[in-house]
Design brief:
- By secondary structure, the chain is an all-alpha fold.
- The protein has one domain.
- The protein is 88% helix and 0% strand.
- The chain has 4 helices and no strands.
- It has helices at residues 2-37, 42-74, 79-89, 91-110.
- The chain is elongated.
- The two termini are 21 Å apart.
Length: 113
């Protein structure tokens, strides 16, 4: 069951990573072109890159936080703690969440009580 969740999480992480890359790297690649070929675009392009980057960052953090909250609540873990970790650390909190779940499953198999 953990393997299925990790597979679905991997797909979500890939989608968010691609979106983040497109916004971050795309702005770096196309901004010099816009500044060079279009007049009066410098402040507007910088503002739009900032707005889109911030929107991607916030939406990723909110999505990770919501996902951690619902998954932790379903798994009888502490949902508020995992939500706070997701809000602060983002995808690193998801990796930590699954490391803890794998450790708990492994510990439960070795020490059935």
């Amino acid at each position: 069951m953990i393997v299925r969740r990790i597979d679905s999480l991997a797909k979500v992480a890939i989608v968010f990573a691609v979106l983040w890359w497109v916004i971050s790297v795309g702005g770096v690649i196309f901004l010099p072109y816009l500044l060079e070929h279009v007049s009066c675009v410098d402040s507007y392009a910088l503002l739009m890159r900032f707005v889109l980057g911030t929107a991607a960052f916030v939406s990723l953090r909110v999505a990770v936080t919501w996902w951690l909250f619902t998954t932790a609540r379903r798994d009888k873990a502490s949902p508020w703690v995992w939500s706070l970790l997701g809000l602060v650390f983002g995808l690193i909190a998801v990796v930590l969440f699954y490391c803890v779940k794998i450790y708990e499953a492994h510990d439960k198999q070795e020490n059935p009580t």
